[in-house]
Design goal:
alpha+beta, Gyrase A, domain 2, DNA polymerase, domain 1, 4-stranded antiparallel β-sheet, 17 helices, 12 strands, about 10% strand, flat, DNA-directed RNA polymerase, nucleotidyltransferase, RPO1C, cytoplasm, DNA-directed RNA polymerase activity
């Protein structure tokens, strides 16, 4: 932001040869005046704040300040896109070209060695297609300060979140001769998941609707007048009884990053997880974009699209300017809901008949539009290319007027 030709070590000295440096009282007024001067500029707030913070501890004359402001305005103007620039085409090229170098392998180990995550090109396709069910849904759960530094407390929260099924806690055997089902519970597994045999017995009884006999760590149920097939089906049902935790969360992995423990899950249920005590709801997130939109709103979904695409590109060692990705996220969420970029979303909703037909299912679009009597105003790029007219971009969208003499 600050050019080395404008401010350097010579400019920031307090030697006898330095002129126009205000004293302490005047300097306070000078800082106040240049702060208000910078804030009044036609620049984004973030640029103004950055400029103020950079100049805060520097000794400047008014001439130097004006020079810096002039240079900042010049650089900002240079960074603006020209009128009628094809920003969408530039973004498509900027994301598409590195995309050709991305791996086609669906599963990678990314960050967490114990959990498989979809990365590479398949993940980018998932994101821009706005898939309702991602192939590997995952939550990144941050904990509140009193839990995030203690592994045992983190583990307790993990057990509250992770789905506990009966087969996690013991062995299930089917006795065909006596027509009964026996569950042998593992005391260590019960203790680890903070459960008792009585709680398990009650849960099984409620689920199957049959009396369950408990003898220390052994559960037995003997249904009356059932066939062999029905007994096996009952055993299967008992095996999959959900005892505690959140059903959608199959597994939780604890990992220490920096100075805190973070939980990573296999499966996603953002709303349910945010309600668990000890979870920091302000930082917890999911890689399911539609779930983010449903729970936290469209702005959260937009930011999530940006973060997920950028993370996927970075993981592959690719560098793409975030503004290109932001444009994609804006287009996908501008109507207040997440839409895919495809014939069922953005491309399929174009006003132009020819643009829709040029994308996919050409005959269908032409027939439908012909039946309805649609009129194409030829306002976009694709339709003008098709009919051989100048495209309304750049100089093609500028009208020349003869100067009268």
């Amino acid at each position: 932001m600050i050019d080395s030709d404008v401010i350097n070590s010579r400019n920031c000295t307090t030697s006898l040869y330095r002129n126009n440096i205000p004293d302490a009282g005047e300097r306070g007024e000078f800082i106040l005046s240049y702060t208000s001067r910078i804030r009044s500029l036609q620049l984004p707030l973030k640029i103004c704040e950055t400029l103020i913070s950079e100049l805060e501890n520097r000794e400047l004359t008014e001439e130097e300040l004006e020079k810096i402001i002039e240079l900042t305005l010049k650089r900002y103007k240079q960074s603006s896109i020209p009128p009628y620039e094809a920003a969408g085409v530039v973004s498509a090229q900027s994301i598409g070209e590195p995309g050709t170098q991305m791996t086609m392998r669906t599963f990678h180990y990314a960050g967490v060695a114990e959990i498989n995550v979809t990365l590479g090109l398949p993940r980018i396709i998932e994101l821009v297609d706005a898939r309702k069910n991602p192939s590997t849904p995952m939550l990144t759960i941050y904990l509140k300060n009193e839990y995030s530094n203690d592994r045992n407390k983190s583990r307790d929260i993990a057990w509250k979140i992770e789905s506990t099924i009966l087969y996690h806690l013991g062995d299930i055997t089917t006795d065909i001769s006596l027509m009964k089902i026996t569950v042998s519970l593992n005391p260590k597994a019960l203790e680890m998941r903070n459960m008792t045999a009585e709680e398990v017995a009650l849960k099984v009884e409620d689920t199957i609707g049959l009396p369950v006999e408990l003898n220390e760590y052994t559960l037995t149920t003997a249904p009356e007048k059932v066939s062999y097939r029905e007994l096996l089906q009952l055993a299967k049902k008992i095996r999959s009884v959900h005892l505690k935790g959140i059903k959608e969360i199959k597994r939780v992995v604890i990992r220490k990053e920096s100075d805190e423990y973070i939980l990573y899950t296999e499966g996603s249920a953002l709303k349910s997880v945010m309600e668990v005590g000890g979870v920091d709801a302000t930082r917890t997130r999911t890689n399911n974009i539609l779930e983010m939109a449903e729970v936290l709103g469209i702005e959260a979904a937009r930011q999530s699209i940006i973060d997920e695409i950028m993370a996927t590109l970075r993981e592959q060692g690719l560098t793409v300017d975030i503004r290109h990705v932001m444009l994609v996220a804006d287009i996908m969420t501008c109507d207040g809901e997440v839409k895919q970029i495809g014939r069922h979303g953005i491309s399929g909703e174009k006003a132009s008949v020819l643009a829709r037909a040029a994308f996919e299912v050409t005959v269908h679009h032409l027939l439908e539009s012909g039946i309805r009597g649609d009129v194409d105003e030829l306002g976009g790029v694709t339709e003008n290319v098709i009919v051989g007219q100048p495209v309304k971009l750049g100089t093609g969208n500028v009208r020349l007027v003869a100067k009268t003499i």
